[in-house]
Design brief:
By secondary structure, this protein is mostly helical. The protein has a domain at about 115-229: Iron/manganese superoxide dismutase, C-terminal domain (minor pseudopilin epsh fold, 3-Layer(bab) Sandwich). The protein is built from 10 helices and 3 strands, in the order H-H-H-H-H-H-H-E-E-E-H-H-H. Strand 1 (about 155-160) and strand 2 form a beta hairpin. The protein is globular. Bound molecules: manganese (II) ion. The site of manganese (II) ion has 7 residues, from helix 2.
Length: about 230
């Protein structure tokens, strides 16, 4: 029989872990950090609204559905789930990879964009790292667009920091996060058609020329300082 003390301890544990309470789903859609039309004319307001409110929300909802019954998994961040994907129960692995990847990728994506007048330039150590790895910002943006253009079907182009603190530019299918391969994502370009089809239809190259005008270089620079230290 449970002592009163054990019950109190259990209650305290439960209170300390809101994720374990059925009413509170472990993951929530982050607010867009600007208005839907902030990226006009490069990315249109309707695309932003549907992309954030519908597509990203669906990744969050589906991730919650997949893991909210598991108290231990519900306590982990989405980044922690992705970093230890191979150690997760087989039954949730695909959902974490796809829905968790979608949630993590889009949560970063919104933050790496901003209105074009505030886009700015890479600064500090990131400037030097882009010079070293790609020959400067312009060359980097050319390579980023080429990588994104080369994705067959749905996926992302990624600038990441690897375990040796080097910049890596590559691409990945679907919602596969760089976290799956031990890297930390710095900047990702979403080339799922839902990211551009309303305004650009099949013209992915035009979308890519536009999106580099609304990169939030202050945010990316600060994130690099954090990841590379
Ligand atoms: Mn997307």
């Amino acid at each position: 029989m449970m002592t009163r003390r054990t019950l109190l301890e259990l209650a305290a544990l439960s209170a300390a872990s809101p994720a374990a309470q059925a009413a509170e789903p472990p993951f929530v859609l982050p607010k867009l950090p600007y208005a839907y039309d902030a990226l006009e004319p490069y990315i249109d307001a309707q695309t932003m609204q549907i992309h954030h409110d519908k597509h990203h929300q669906a990744y969050v909802d589906n991730l919650n559905k997949a893991i909210s019954g598991d108290a231990a998994l519900s306590r982990l961040s989405v980044e922690e789930l992705l970093q230890r994907l191979d150690a997760l129960p087989a039954a949730v692995r695909t959902a974490v990879r796809n829905q968790g990847g979608g949630h993590a990728n889009h949560s970063l994506f919104w933050q790496t964009l901003c209105t074009s007048s505030k886009s700015g330039k890479p600064a500090g150590r990131l400037t030097a790292a882009l010079d070293r790895s790609f020959g400067g910002q312009d060359k980097f943006e050319e390579k980023l667009q080429a990588s994104a253009l080369g994705v067959f079907g749905s996926g992302w182009a990624w600038l990441s920091v690897d375990s040796g603190k080097n910049l890596v530019l590559d691409s990945a299918p679907n919602q596969d996060s760089p976290l799956l391969s031990g890297k930390r994502p710095l900047l990702g370009i979403d080339v799922w058609e839902h990211a551009y089809y309303l305004k650009y239809q099949n013209r992915r190259a035009d979308y890519l020329k536009a999106i580099v005008k609304v990169i939030n270089w202050d945010f990316v620079t600060a994130r690099y300082e954090d990841l590379a230290k």
